[in-house]
Design brief:
282 residues, mainly alpha, two-stranded antiparallel ribbon, hydrolase, membrane, metalloprotease, metallopeptidase activity
Length: 282
């Protein structure tokens, strides 16, 4: 039953760390009146500071349990180049979504803002999103939890179970925040649950066809920045890269999101299918 213990400890590590990270940001604001950027810095420091060393430690137990330690783990720096695979794929899919929505007249770009208006906030947010969301979540969920599940179950079932655990992390943190009197970081509804289900599935498939967690990290990070600075900047109070309008701008923005998430799933499945076909042929 060791795999169940590792699964539970890994999942609880993510839940507790995410809650403590969000709590630390609120405390710094209440006690010291810190700026939003400093709050984000504290949250990222707490999240990665807790999750990364714990998960890397738990991975040693996973290797002992499976009896196999790869020479180049999925999180190895030697696989770092796949980070750009994820980034470029997210950008390409989002651009395709904008082209499709623009062709239909749903979304029309009115203005490209000068870089001096947004590159500073974008850089700061990239650092925050990397340490608070992309790195720890991918290392814990698409890395450790998937590998523990894969020890016990088939690939397809491990992917589905990991995706459900991803959703449960978000729900559990929101419930804990509500119980202690904090405002939940996200609004839990059916639409949001469907989105993160598909997003988690996409990220896991990206890791599978490249064999690198850095692909998932890169895609995750690019997705967040595209959402915050291009698709819905008004929701995050940041300086936008583009300003758009159209006959149905909300539908156009939704098309971009769907193109990134569902497009990522389709691309991954096609590549995985092609690789499997090639292996059988040879």
């Amino acid at each position: 039953m060791k795999w169940i213990k590792l699964l539970l400890i890994g999942w609880l590590t993510l839940v507790v760390s995410l809650f403590l990270a969000s709590l630390s940001g609120d405390i710094s604001a209440q006690l010291f009146g810190s700026s939003r950027d400093f709050q984000n810095f504290i949250k990222g420091l707490v999240m990665s500071g807790l999750v990364v060393p714990i998960v890397l430690y738990l991975y040693q137990h996973v290797y002992r349990m499976t009896g196999n330690k790869p020479s180049t783990p999925v999180y190895s720096w030697k696989r770092l180049y796949h980070f750009f695979t994820g980034v470029f794929l997210a950008i390409a899919l989002a651009s395709l979504g904008i082209i499709i929505a623009g062709y239909q007249g749903w979304l029309i770009i009115e203005d490209w803002h000068a870089p001096n208006q947004w590159y500073g906030p974008l850089l700061i947010n990239i650092i925050f999103a990397f340490f608070y969301e992309a790195l720890p979540e991918e290392l814990g969920l698409r890395g450790l939890l998937y590998d523990v599940l894969r020890f016990r179950f088939a690939t397809w079932l491990s992917v589905l179970l990991q995706t459900l655990l991803f959703v449960l992390v978000t729900i559990a943190v929101a419930l804990i925040q509500a119980l202690v009197g904090l405002t939940p970081g996200v609004s839990i509804n059916i639409g949001y649950i469907i989105l993160i289900l598909c997003f988690g599935l996409c990220l896991q498939l990206l890791r599978l066809w490249t064999g690198s967690l850095w692909t998932s990290i890169g895609f995750h990070l690019a997705y967040l920045e595209i959402m915050r600075f291009a698709i819905s900047p008004h929701q995050y109070g940041v300086s936008p890269i583009i300003t758009y309008d159209g006959s149905m701008p909300e539908l156009g923005a939704l098309i971009c999101v769907i193109m990134m998430v569902i497009g990522g799933i389709i691309v991954s499945l096609v590549i995985l299918g092609a690789k499997r076909f090639i292996r059988k042929s040879t």
